[in-house]
Specification:
The chain is mainly β. 10% of the residues lie in helices and 41% in strands.
Length: 69
């Protein structure tokens, strides 16, 4: 699924995530809390990481835009 975890955004919030390294964009839905690692803002599903092009690297610099709920 194209989902994400964020510490504060309400469940169901739609966000546009852009991988700054390659320009790939996806719209994800917040459905979980996290990440709980210092310095990280967002965790994305495995499919989202693959589609955004950073599954192998595990981390990426992203732009996050809140679209609404």
């Amino acid at each position: 699924a194209l989902t994400a975890a964020h510490r504060h955004l309400p469940f169901g919030t739609r966000i546009r995530v852009t991988n700054l390294a390659n320009g790939r964009k996806l719209v994800l839905k917040v459905n979980d809390r996290g990440p709980f690692i210092a310095g990280r803002i967002l965790d994305v599903s495995r499919r989202a990481a693959r589609d955004l092009g950073f599954l192998e690297a595990g981390l990426a610099e992203l732009r996050i835009e809140v679209l609404g709920s």
